Amino acid sequence: MALRVVVLSALVACSVHGFSLAPSLRMPHSSAHRSSAVSPQVRPLRIENRLRTVGVSLNMVAAMDTDTETDEETPKGPPIKYLTVAEAKQIDEELMDEDTGGFSQVTMMELNGQSVAESIYDMYRPELLDGYTVLVICGPGQNGGDALVTARHLRLMGYAVEVVYPNRNNQQPFRDLVNQLKALDVRVNMGMPGTASRCALVVDGIFGTGFEGDINAPYDFILKQMRDPSMFGAVPIVSIDVPSGWDVEFGPPEDTAMRIEPDLLVSLTAPKKFARTYNGMHYLGGRFVPSRMSFKYKLNLPAFPGKEQWVSLPQPPPLTAEEKAEEAALREARGQAPAEEEGEEIVSDIPQELEGGNPLASF
Hints:
Order of helices and strands: HHHHHHEHEHEEHEEEHEH
Strand order of the largest sheet: 3-2-1-4-5-6-7-8
């Protein structure tokens, strides 16, 4: 009850004084603030999103209304499981098997894309983008299919959307997904736009858990553009399931030229191992895992609130001795060097002042 009073007091204070509760949405990589005129209609939406960035959701505020007057903590269950590549593939295969899951590829992509779009809507409302574009970048595989579905749902939610789909898959269901976008007057381009001046948000749907090997053209060039502050490096990024170029188990690549740093990660089905060290906003989408399958793999998935297709995930606890031993075994099996106990902090080279008048810069 006390927390409810604090949260509501913060809302009133922000409404009156117009100050920020949290850093820029480019967090945690930037602490930039920009003042701008905010209309009374838009201000509450920005306040809501600022509260979310410090871990207070509107669902939490609503739930506090019905809480008892006791300050007892809710008992916590076992921690959510973070999947290896092998575990993620095994679960996907079981979900799509007609005898054990019954989810077709197109059904999975539809559910995944919807959950990503709704996660984006929760964090970046269309009113805040003020007509600026959401650029959705799609890869050649199922992650790209998830991104195509995400683009369609975003368009139907009122966003201005543009799609980049360099290596277009003309097989079904991908061909239909592209045609659905064209029917909604969404441009589907082969290459990146020449400028980021009208782009407010980038959705990274290039590579997922199935990606292996080197990053080749044109995706190496695209990732460098997404990183380059003079191009799209100052634009917030939402990554679908795995940030493109990151190792599914061990995180960001050593090559900093292609190391994108997403502001929002939407994991699908269950988070992957790399997310144990991810420091941005983290949502889980894909509300379709059967309870028996969750029990079988000890996923310990959180409850999705109400009718939502996403749930916000807390920062994971530090690695246990058992988890450190498991990671060391994975690294040894893949011929990688052991992880440093005290790794060097990743420092973004993104400028603190966003260029081009991005409407999200004022968070």
